[in-house]
Amino acid sequence: MNETRHRVLEALADGPVSGPALAEALGVSRAAVWKHVEGLRESGFDVESGDDGYRLASVPEFGGAAVAYELGAPFEVEYHDSIPSTNARARDLAAEGATDVVVLADEQTGGRGRLDRAWSSPSGGIWLSLLFRPDAPMAHAPVFTLAAAVAVTRAARGAGVDATIKWPNDVLVDDRKLVGILTEMEGEADRVSWVVVGIGINANVDPAALPSDADPTSLEAERGSPVDRRSFTQRVLEEFDALRQSPETVVDAWREYATTLGRRVGVETPSGTVEGEAVDIEFPGALVVETDTGRVTITAGDCDHLRPV
Amino acid sequence: MNETRHRVLEALADGPVSGPALAEALGVSRAAVWKHVEGLRESGFDVESGDDGYRLASVPEFGGAAVAYELGAPFEVEYHDSIPSTNARARDLAAEGATDVVVLADEQTGGRGRLDRAWSSPSGGIWLSLLFRPDAPMAHAPVFTLAAAVAVTRAARGAGVDATIKWPNDVLVDDRKLVGILTEMEGEADRVSWVVVGIGINANVDPAALPSDADPTSLEAERGSPVDRRSFTQRVLEEFDALRQSPETVVDAWREYATTLGRRVGVETPSGTVEGEAVDIEFPGALVVETDTGRVTITAGDCDHLRPV
């Protein structure tokens, strides 16, 4: 949303305000005011016009303008009703040199998870990818995956859903999958060029419509009512923005919500399956597993929670 | 080089062989044989024609066809007399989906090192970038930088130059810089999509023509005579190919040539300078420094060798 339209929107929120008064306050023509009001209506903002002028009656439930409005984090929002993959789009934006952009969609038609696994993304979810360029070596990039898990867990708890995190990047409710995260990155060893953190949130979708092998749940199913996707998305972006600025705080925050620590786990790694008790997580995101033969630190892999022996 | 031309070249090396005999042996027309012979001559191969047929008299000192000929590693070679940056070209090839390609140049006009530092690449050097797609998590990618340092150190020693490695990726002769390595990569945490290892070798160049702040040397200056760039490049590619197939052997190989271990070092890291004795290197490439307050493991940073205290 451009700066003038944003100021029109803020004035309408404080309204009613007459067209001429608004034109004068913003230093633009009455025709320009009218154009911005129409533009806001097209974006789904309900702008009422009465005898005393215009006023903002309601904000759309979702969409780019809705999420950008009153967003407390410095991300541009690019919204799509439907897109093959928000991560693929964010990678293209990265190649063009962009940064601090959120690609947001109501539906993905070709969403994918880690290791090319399918990720179902029907309308009603929150499918977003954050593109940014942290000043960090590549080895620290995993911390941003943890930060995303923390951000969305906090947003879920704020919405009344008791979410927990399974290492490294699944957000669960009672072991049912609520959120998937896929982080992609490019750079040289000393320096990240860009990171794209894809966050797929089963928001207002019916778990029965999702593939059952992931044992899915959704915010709507857990709450018994739809979540306000606009404010939920804003909360995720704001929490993430705060965390990315203090990467050293992320691991402690992650531990608070972790369901993996203290449990028996089996982790598939390139060099075989490691089984034992997950005892800790280390910066920037490695899992420490106490096995029969000693401690093993694992940087990446598929983690299964096992029954206690 | 296409398959038929390659077979023509091999036959010429075993020559003399007549055009008609060659045409029949390869199942192609005499005109096709003639075309391939001309193509080889254009690539710098000296093909003599006498009464008893064609024979290969000499192989060019450098170039794509020369390096590809008898190369014992499965890389395609794309050669440029002059190119802005072999790494940039390899990244473009990566975006197109290519793998196992070497971009090779006699001169780079916009070469760069780590962290956008300038890297002078005049004609006479060996400027190459290896593009490949290892089956490895991103966290293991640093091992390929070490592998490149080992490969080129072995090639240098084979050429009579007593090269050593300074952590993580400088190849030195008596603390003078012979080779710089710049590794770039893209992928998700669990899986590398591609790695580009750029290797800049001061081969047959005059160190006096290179920026003096790097305290440069060259193979030619150390040997007192030019190196055969074709066979040197082949050796680097063959050593690297063997090492990338056994990443777990790379760290031991690296230790053999390391000049950093056992020395006092100061390493600039994102969280400050770490000073102490470099005591070891750990897979996939982290330096272990014994400081006054304990051991620190460093994944990336600028390393200075300090005088003993």
Total DSSP helices of chain A: 9
Largest beta sheet: strand ordering of chain A: 3-4-5-9-8-7-6
Instruction: Indicate the mean pLDDT of chain A.
Output: 92
The major pleated sheet of chain A works out as: 7 strands, mixed
Strand content of chain A: 25-35%
Distance separating the two termini of chain A: 56 Å
Query: What is the CA-based Rg of chain A, rounded?
Result: 22 Å
Poorly predicted residue ranges of chain A: none
**Helix and strand run of chain A:** HHHEEHEHEEHEEEEHHHEEEEE
Describe the structure.
The structure is a homodimer of 309-residue chains. With 309 residues, the first copy, chain A, is α+β, with helices and mostly antiparallel strands. Chain A folds into 3 domains: 3-58, Orthogonal Bundle (Arc Repressor Mutant, subunit A), CATH 1.10.10; 64-257, BirA Bifunctional Protein, domain 2 (2-Layer Sandwich), CATH 3.30.930; 264-305, SH3 type barrels (Roll). In chain A, 30% of the residues lie in helices and 31% in strands. In chain A, the strands form 3 sheets. Chain A has a 7-stranded mixed beta sheet, with helices on both faces. In chain A, strands 13-12-11-10-14 form a 5-stranded antiparallel beta sheet, with no helix packed on it. In chain A, a hairpin with a 3-residue loop joins strand 11 and strand 12 (286-291). The longest helix of chain A is centred in the middle third of the chain and has 17 residues, at 142-158. Chain A starts with a helix and ends with a strand. The mean pLDDT of chain A is 92. The interface between A and B is medium-sized, with 29 and 28 residues.
